[in-house]
Specification:
The chain is α/β, with parallel strands linked by helices and 455 residues long. Helices cover 41% and strands 19% of the residues. Strand 2 (60-70) and strand 3 (78-85) form a beta hairpin. The N and C termini lie far apart (58 Å).
């Protein structure tokens, strides 16, 4: 009997995800798991990468999402749920929900229960961890309100609604477990065991706390620096999950039941069906001005436009007038770390003096791809970084985080032509400007045409 992880944060969970998708799939194969999910917070940006890596490895990809839901009425509190796409239609609803979450407040993405109901088709819903709405009500002794929450979600999702239960060794989880199992006995709603996976190995717990500090611009001395109460939030083996005490065997079997509901055979990540061709777009650009220098490769859907003396805003307006059925939207770039940049960032979280950081980073060879490689290539860096425990620890931590990404930025001179109404995840920056959550690779794989303006 195997097990499937259904609550996993990849590198695309901005604040607290370090389960690198490539490593995640490799580990799932090593553990002989038939499937693996990613459930990034407010993001489906890793969907395509997981799909391709899983297909290559011969296991089933499960695309999910952690999203915050606000009650339409009542106390106004916000609680997260886990949503898993059963098929392409479900994935489209994940995209719609991401877009809705960012519409009103980009700094605190959330949806309402009404929006969740409206876009619930072909989704599996897990009730979330001990801090979800259901367990919170139970822990507060509000059993009747908890039952009302359960009834609402069951009404919306029916047999695709599961109580989610976890055990990271926290006292609150032990209390919630008993109360949730009692409620399940009354409602007959199935319970599924998950582990809230934020990193790959137990030893990576310091790295995830460092990542959270980096993202928030804090050091470890700050009272809000450490987030995780223990080091149990890692990608555990089936044997480790089954060894958790106090859980009926059916809870692990239900992970397999959920995985069996996922259909990835046809259009799990939908491809755009559009009549617009690259030559047609090139023709429209040329009609604006024959002096534009336009390049594209055969069978490519990416067009490069050298503006010469023209303004990109004018060219875009011309295209918008000609392509009324399309939106021209920026897409996202996920900037990678270098050994120097990640080492500097980790040392900053450890409150290392700036001069020391500059000295250490200056010794990292330009050709090194990792900090471990830098140690092997440079005797000076090896000696200096090992003289101090924190510097040595920072090198180890940096290599754990190097395959997360440094920045998530709007690609200012790049646009995707997206058919109006096509469900793609649109987020908004702090100024309210929209951008597609996909990067260029994902834009290409979904069959969309992209433009790059060069000044």
């Amino acid at each position: 009997m195997s097990f499937v992880h259904l609550h996993v944060h990849s590198e695309f969970s901005w604040l607290d995800g370090a389960c690198i998708i490539d490593d995640l799939v490799q580990k799932a194969v090593q553990y002989k798991m038939p499937a693996v999910a990613i459930t990034d917070r407010n993001s489906v940006a890793g969907a395509s990468r997981l799909w391709h890596q899983c297909v290559k490895a011969g296991i089933k990809p499960i695309i999910g999402l952690e999203i915050a839901v606000q009650n339409d009425q009542g106390d106004g509190r916000i609680f997260s749920v886990i949503l898993l796409a059963k098929n392409g239609s479900g994935y489209e609803n994940l995209c719609r929900l991401v877009t809705l979450a960012y519409e009103d407040d980009p700094n605190t993405p959330r949806i309402t229960k009404s929006q969740l109901r409206e876009h619930s088709r072909d989704l599996i819903c897990l009730s979330f961890s001990v801090v979800g709405e259901l367990c919170t009500q139970l822990l507060e002794g509000k059993d009747e309100q908890a039952r009302q929450v359960s009834d609402w979600y069951y009404e919306v999702y029916g047999e695709d609604y599961y109580y989610e239960i976890q055990n990271h060794g926290l006292p609150s989880e032990a209390v919630a477990m008993n109360k949730l199992l009692n409620l399940a006995y009354q409602t007959k709603i199935p319970v599924v065991l998950t582990n809230d996976c934020h990193y790959m190995d137990r030893s990576d717990s310091l790295a995830i706390d460092s990542l959270n500090c980096i993202r928030k611009g804090l050091d470890f001395a700050h009272p809000e620096a450490k987030r995780f109460a223990c080091n149990e939030y890692y990608f555990k083996s089936p044997k480790e999950m089954k060894a958790l005490k106090g859980f009926p065997p059916q809870l692990t079997k239900n992970t397999l039941e959920i995985a069996d509901k996922i259909d990835v055979t046809d259009g799990y990540i939908p491809v755009a069906e559009i009549d617009l061709s690259v030559p047609s777009v090139v023709g429209l650009l040329s009609s604006y001005s024959p002096t534009l220098r336009i390049k594209f490769k055969p069978r490519s859907r990416h067009i490069t436009v050298s503006l010469m003396d023209h303004k990109s805003a004018d060219v875009l307006e011309h295209l918008r007038q000609q392509l009324l059925d399309y939106d021209l939207v920026h897409f996202t770039e996920y900037e990678s770390w270098t050994p120097r940049s990640i080492y500097s960032a980790v040392l900053n979280t450890m409150n290392m003096p700036d001069e020391k950081i500059k000295e250490l980073c200056g010794l990292i060879p330009a050709g090194a791809k990792t900090l471990r490689e830098a140690v092997l290539l440079s005797i000076d860096f090896s000696c200096l970084s090992s003289e101090d425990y924190l510097c040595s620890l920072a090198a180890e931590t940096g290599d754990t985080l190097i395959n997360t990404f440094k920045e998530e930025i709007t690609s200012r001179h790049n646009y995707a032509l997206i058919p109006k109404g096509m469900p793609v995840p649109i987020v908004r920056d702090i100024y309210g400007q929209p951008r597609c959550q996909y990067d260029l690779s994902m834009i290409t794989q979904t069959g969309l045409i992209s433009l790059e303006f060069q000044l």
